[in-house]
């Protein structure tokens, strides 16, 4: 049998039936697990355990570092266990939910009589520190379903997971975190074992974990929230404890600094402070209203996008907000994505006087996407190859049934406006269309000030998709080729595609290095077939078009939220709700600045003159707090010279600028979409 060790070679090391990952890599505390033939395993587990070792077989053994995503997730999941152990030590009545790793950290859900307090978090961190210093070992045990039920008889949520283990990771609750605990195969329990061999704590878990708690060098508990069990509002509400863990204290500190900066940029706070938008309770969760200044920002953003689409040959369409359920049955969304669609409205039912049904009603749904309606527009009449590519564009209002626990300001909403485009083209046109479309998307995002991108390719999930392997391979290859033509880095998202098409997602990094998913592009060979779309080819035959889905912003609301955080509310002049504020040194100069303001308005500039009774310095502070790009200050000397004093929001000031030159500076910055 041939054993292949990937990574640092260890001279003279023999791999036997009892050899563990610790035997190979135990001297390096940055190695937290191994991959054996691609499977993540505990370092303490025999490398050949469970493998069919036949003569001539090659077994690949690869170390997993805490610096790579899989390794860091293992560290964080192990920290989640430590946090849960600390909670049950402090609250004996706490019942365990689920504790998966997540982006930048972990969480664990608990059924507690009382919510966590800030003092609880401090106490729990101290308990975690003691557990970590004890270097408790994570010891894996395989158990039967019945054995697990006996051991966890006092953990009702774990018992539910045991019962449901075959369906975990499937359907509407696939992202509820349960897959960290159980799967379709063998159940395992991890014991936290002290140095004296006694078991301090245990939990149902698939693993893997770090060898012992001392492998968790840097951690912190962050916050708490309410969360429904497995993300379902019909289930009990639990207490969710969020934490983070990192390979070093330096990385933890850097993360905490990033969080502090992100908090300063929180679009919800800035939206309130700058009077852009709000989220009234009376409307409901996940619904925003835009105030006049937010409306100006939104209009500027949308107007520019509209013009760019006109220039690129798109045609504008409009569709209603609701539809009969039949439409989404045809498209497949009711079959594959019903969990994300709002409950139906049953209308048009007519009753007789005795209450019997004279005319059956129908279920209408708020539309969760625009694509089925655009297919109906394409199908409304005969189409010729001469019309293709046909590029349909809509700022379409759509509605998604997001769980309350994931709704977040403008970046995760229930009601949104998608800048949605669907391009219908021939098979021969598809590749060129994708390449030009991706470039169009990137260029437009750059115009809004985003410049750092990479691409993510989401591929088919065979269990949750329609269509043949050949169709998916053609569509996926076309996207790969378009990505290659862009020159950007491409990372894979295996199984992350929608049920009908693979997609490329443009991932954009903001000013503080966070990644946001922006535009998505999908090559769809399924919906044209489901809707019976055809065009007449040059030879007179009837053929199916290729359908390309494209959402450039994702949604207008989300894009505004991202831009607000990217710019920390200090938008470039072309997007700023108020581009210029005139600030007179004294009331006698109001008229002079008003005349300048009129000149600017004639050039399309959004300008105000502060004629309040506040002192000049107070007016300057007010304009700075509103993050106005340009302040024009005028006193006696300025009037005599026909000039103004320029003040920027960063505090820089230039005196004695002639009025005409000032107008040119302002209009030039707006025209060039420059930041100041």
- From the spread of the alpha carbons, the general shape counts as globular
Helix content: 25-40%
- Which ranges are low-confidence, i.e. pLDDT below 50, for 5 or more consecutive residues? 169-174
Assigned CATH class of the largest domain? Alpha Beta
What's the total count of β strands?
Answer: 34
Strand composition percent: 25-35%
Taking Cα atoms only, what radius of gyration do you get, to the nearest Å?
30 Å
Largest sheet: 8 strands, mixed
Features:
single chain, alpha+beta, Ubiquitin-like (UB roll), Threonyl-tRNA Synthetase, Chain A, domain 2, BirA Bifunctional Protein, domain 2, 4 domains, 8-stranded mixed sheet, 5-stranded antiparallel sheet, globular
Detailed description of the structure:
This protein has 19 helices and 34 strands. It is of the alpha+beta class and 676 residues long. The chain folds into four domains: 2-65, Ubiquitin-like (UB roll); 74-263, Threonyl-trna Synthetase, Chain A, domain 2 (Threonyl-tRNA Synthetase, Chain A, domain 2, 2-Layer Sandwich), CATH 3.30.980; 289-566, BirA Bifunctional Protein, domain 2 (2-Layer Sandwich); 580-671, Anticodon-binding domain (Rossmann fold, 3-Layer(aba) Sandwich). The strands form nine sheets. It has an eight-stranded mixed beta sheet, with helices on both faces. A hairpin with an 8-residue loop joins strand 11 (218-228) and strand 12. Helix 2 (69-90) crosses helix 3.
């Amino acid at each position: 049998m041939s054993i292949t060790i990937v990574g640092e070679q260890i001279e003279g090391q023999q791999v036997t039936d009892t050899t563990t990952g610790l035997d190979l890599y135990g001297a390096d505390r940055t190695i937290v697990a191994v991959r054996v033939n691609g499977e993540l395993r505990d370092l303490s587990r025999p490398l050949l355990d469970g493998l069919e070792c036949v003569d001539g077989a090659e077994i690949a053994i690869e170390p997993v570092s805490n610096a790579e995503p899989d390794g860091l997730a293992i560290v964080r999941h192990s920290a989640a266990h430590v946090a849960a152990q600390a909670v049950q030590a402090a609250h004996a009545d706490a019942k365990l939910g689920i504790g998966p790793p997540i982006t930048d950290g972990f969480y664990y859900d608990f059924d507690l009589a009382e919510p966590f307090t800030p003092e609880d978090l401090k106490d729990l961190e101290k308990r975690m520190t003691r557990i970590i210093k004890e270097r408790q070992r994570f010891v894996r045990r395989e158990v039967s379903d019945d054995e697990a039920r006996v051991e966890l008889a006092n953990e009702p949520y774990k018992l539910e997971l045991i019962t449901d283990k075959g369906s975990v990771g499937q359907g509407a609750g696939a992202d509820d975190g349960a897959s960290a605990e159980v799967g379709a195969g063998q159940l395992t329990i991890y014991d936290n074992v002290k140095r004296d061999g006694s078991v301090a704590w245990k939990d149902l878990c698939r693993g893997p974990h770090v060898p012992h708690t001392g492998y968790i060098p840097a951690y912190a508990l962050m916050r708490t929230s309410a969360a429904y069990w497995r993300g379902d509002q019909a289930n009990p509400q639990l207490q969710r404890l969020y934490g983070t863990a990192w390979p070093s204290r330096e990385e933890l500190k850097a993360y905490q600094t990033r969080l502090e900066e992100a908090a300063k940029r929180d679009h919800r706070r800035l939206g309130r402070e700058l009077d852009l938008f709000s989220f009234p309770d009376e409307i409901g969760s996940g619904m925003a209203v835009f105030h006049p200044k937010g409306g100006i920002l939104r209009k500027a953003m949308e107007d520019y996008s509209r013009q760019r689409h006109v220039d690129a040959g798109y045609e504008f369409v409009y569709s209603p907000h609701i539809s009969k359920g039949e439409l989404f049955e045809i498209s497949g969304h009711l079959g594959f994505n019903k969990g994300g669609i709002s409950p139906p409205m049953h209308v048009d039912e007519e009753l007789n006087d005795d209450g019997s049904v004279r005319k059956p009603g129908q279920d209408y749904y708020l539309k969760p996407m625009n694509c089925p309606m655009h297919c109906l527009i394409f199908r409304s009449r005969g189409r010729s190859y001469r019309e293709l590519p046909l590029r349909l564009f809509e700022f379409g209002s759509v509605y998604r049934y997001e769980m309350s626990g994931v709704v977040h300001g403008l970046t995760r909403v229930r009601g949104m406006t998608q800048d949605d485009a669907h391009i219908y083209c021939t098979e021969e046109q598809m590749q060129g269309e994708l390449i030009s479309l991706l470039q169009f998307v990137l260029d437009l995002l750059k115009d809004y000030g985003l410049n750092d991108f990479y691409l993510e390719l989401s591929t088919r999930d065979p269990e949750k998709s329609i269509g043949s392997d050949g169709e998916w391979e053609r569509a996926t290859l076309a996207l790969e080729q378009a990505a290659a033509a862009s020159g950007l880095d491409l990372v894979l998202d295996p199984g992350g595609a929608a049920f009908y098409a693979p997609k490329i997602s443009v991932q954009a990094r903001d000013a503080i290095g966070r990644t946001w998913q922006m535009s998505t592009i999908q090559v769809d060979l399924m919906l044209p077939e489901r809707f019976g779309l055809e065009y007449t080819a040059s030879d007179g035959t009837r053929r199916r078009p290729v359908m390309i889905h494209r959402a450039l912003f994702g949604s207008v609301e989300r894009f505004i939220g991202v831009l607000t955080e990217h710019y920390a509310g200090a938008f470039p002049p072309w997007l700023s709700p108020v581009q210029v504020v005139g600030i007179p040194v004294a009331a006698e100069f109001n008229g002079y600045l008003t005349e300048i303001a009129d000149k600017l308005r004639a050039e399309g500039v959004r300008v105000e003159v502060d004629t309040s009774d506040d002192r000049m310095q107070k007016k300057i502070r007010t304009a700075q707090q509103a993050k106005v790009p340009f302040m024009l200050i005028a006193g006696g000397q300025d009037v005599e010279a026909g000039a103004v004093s320029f003040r920027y929001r960063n505090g820089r000031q230039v005196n004695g600028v002639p009025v005409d030159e000032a107008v040119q500076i302002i209009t030039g910055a707006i025209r060039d979409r420059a930041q100041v």
